[in-house]
Amino acid sequence: MTLPVPDSPDRGSSALPPRGTDPLWFKRAVFYEVLVRGFADSNADGVGDLRGMLDKLDYLQWLGVDCLWLPPFFASPLRDGGYDVSDYTAVLPEFGDIQDFKEFLAAAHDRGIRVIIDFVMNHTSDQHPWFQASRSDPDGPYGDFYVWADDDTGYADARIIFVDTESSNWTFDPVRKQYFWHRFFSHQPDLNFENPQVQEAVIDALRYWLDLGIDGFRLDAVPYLFEEEGTNGENLPRTHEFLKHVRKVVDADYPDRVLLCEANQWPADVVEYFGEDGDECQMAFHFPVMPRLFMAARREQRFPISEIMAQTPAIPDNCQWGIFLRNHDELTLEMVTDEERDYMWAEYAKDPRMKANIGIRRRLAPLLDNDLNTLELFNALLFSLPGSPVLYYGDEIGMGDNIWLGDRDGVRTPMQWTPDRNGGFSTADPQRMYLPLNQDPVYGYQTTNVEAQLRNTNSMLQWIRRMIAVRREHPTFGLGTYEEIGSRNPTVLSFVREFGDDIVLCVNNLSRFPQPVELDLRRFEGYTPIELTGRVEFPQIGVLPYMLTLAGHGFYWFELSRPVEPVEEPVGLEAAATSPVADSLLASGLVSEAEEIPGDSDTRTGDDVPPSTGGPA
Q: Distances from the Cα of 91 to the Cαs of 50, 95, 540, in angstroms?
């Protein structure tokens, strides 16, 4: 497959500024999450690798991606998709080595693409040398690197997160003959951040990657760094103190780098991770928006979205939300009520294999029944709601999932590049693939692939690219305020994004059926709505409610163009002196400035008026 040629090496004047010149670059960026294992295989071993990713950077540049987010590619036994790290400063050999990463990073930066990586701060794998030393030598230098206890009764108020696999947050270790603490899987012991040596070791690992030139971190599972009796062990003050310290270290030595906090909490709790005046993490994911988009679409009412946006506190000017349509592996259902969770399972996970923990492990296209109008509506919401959007690899072409694969592998299958062998992902024997290619009649690689959609100007891929380009032309999407515009029609969600003179009105129909809506836009009286994808002017806004009709699951993005101030026409000699006729006569020297110019004055008498062409002279 021949990849598209990017429009220009610098990606156009509207791209993000060069690295090192804009500390707020992340506020206008479009992020793209991509599994190294699942994107492209360069050495025919059936596993994606860093050199394979390097080969596909032209495609990502063409798409308009500003920043890549790489989930863990560190050394790991891979019992939790790489989030069980056994060495923070080593690349898993099947993905390549540090030199491969350096070359990939340099190539991405050459194309104006930034790179952030996952950093699993809360826990390690039980195969990490720190844990092995801690369990075998309790009195040694690593003996206190993890949280140990003689019984499993401590921190009883902390919830169990993986309720489908774990019955306790404590696990007995037969070597040390004590219990170790873990908030996730029992093979992922939590680090003991009460120990200053642990804090320094973690910061040293962060420095290692920052020194290589990465643009930031997604900090995994940070609400659980510390434990305290009588609390649920989440969002504790000492957690915030440590993150502030990390931010100071990063700002002091590594400008323009971003810390993205992964805290699956309610907005009122998550906002604390921005710190005072934005001195903690610059970004945080807005988890509760995600399920409410799906809830609103299925109920065909805007209220789930409206309510969660109304509950979202203001954040510092130098901070930003990160928003997504799924938390990479799944549609997460932690931040909903039990009743809402049951409703979502009934609507979107009709087969038990689609459930994962308390979420839904499905890709976007199957969740939305592969309906193109609905897919476009959801992506339009992703690109226009407050925050920086995060795309998941393959969603730009509508890739499907495989619910017959175990755990969350059903949404981690190889990227589908072509209809050829192994979907163009690898030249290895098909049985060597790390996961089988999707061969579904609808979502299989023979039908759904990049090559086919590059040739179709009406494809999902081409549409996503156009919307990213439109978004880039309007900084209000990343920097602007958000104000919902109510209406009597509950199926329509309308809001205005405003940043200086850049004002965009977004109108979204959450119903399957065409809908009318009347919007109170009186404060924009005299403005002209210009539809952004086709630059079509709509009727000027007046004092009456503004009437629109939307197709089923349709949407509009309007630029609201300010009215042009009327220019007063000059009169008398002033008119004569400023008219084109006067200019030419003065230039020729045929008249002086003091003379009246016949036929060119608005103050002519009846005798001066020339005869009409159609009447008597």
A: 10, 7, 58
What is the Cα 614 distance to its own chain's centre?
67
Residues 518 and 540 in one domain: yes
Tokens for 609?
């008026």
Q: Are 110 and 116 in contact (CB under 8 A)?
A: no
Please confirm, yes or no, whether 262 is among the known catalytic residues.
yes
Return the SS3 of 547. strand
Task: Decide: 318 and 278 in contact? Cβ < 8 Å.
Answer: yes
Give me the domain span that covers residue 153.
124-190
Tell me if the pTM is above 0.85: yes
Q: Which of 80, 126, 220, 409 is catalytic?
A: 220
**CA-closest candidate to residue 281, choices 311, 254, 246, 237:** 246
Please give the Cα distance from 27 to 388 (Å, whole number). Answer: 6
Give which of 288, 306, 291 is closest to 493, Cα–Cα. 306
Cα(22)–Cα(475) distance, integer angstroms: 14
Looking at 542, 561, 580, the residue that finishes a domain is 561
- Write down the H helix ranges in 415-459: 450-455
**3-class DSSP state for residue 52?**
helix
Shared domain for 96 and 12, answered yes or no, is yes
Tell me which residue of 152, 221, 215 sits closest to 188, measured CA to CA: 221
The CATH number of the domain holding residue 544 is: 2.60.40.1180
CA distance 117 to 469: 25
- Please, what's the largest Cα pairwise distance for the chain? 118
- Determine the average pLDDT of the residues in 37-54: 98
**567 or 61: whose pLDDT is higher?**
61
Binned at pLDDT 50, 70 and 90, residue 9 comes out as very low
How many helices (H) and strands (E) the chain has is answered by 18, 24
Q: Over 60: is that where the pLDDT of 10 sits?
A: no
Tell me, yes or no, whether 31 and 98 share the same domain.
yes
Q: Report the half-sphere exposure of 256 (CA within 13 A, side-chain side).
A: 13
User: Looking at the domain assignment, is residue 447 inside a domain?
Assistant: yes
Distance between CA 380 and CA 471 in Å, rounded? 10
Question: What is the C-alpha to C-alpha distance for residues 123 and 137, in angstroms, rounded to an integer?
Answer: 19
pLDDT recorded at residue 233: 94
Residue 244 falls within a domain, yes or no?
no
Residues 456, 379: one domain? yes
Q: To 5 degrees, how large is the angle CA 423–CA 428–CA 431?
A: 90
Structure tokens at 186: 């029992």
Domain count, the chain: 3
Q: Which residues fall within 8 angstroms of residue 282, CB to CB, at 6 or more apart?
A: 26, 258, 259, 260, 274, 318, 319, 320
- Give the CA angle between residues 213, 480, 318 to the nearest 5°: 40
430 within domain boundaries: yes
220 noted as active-site residue:
yes
Which of the residues 234, 262, 329, 409 is marked catalytic?
262
Q: How far apart (Å, rounded) are the C-alpha atoms in residues 66 and 32?
A: 8
Q: Is 174 domain-assigned?
A: yes
C-alpha 178/C-alpha 306 separation (Å) is 49
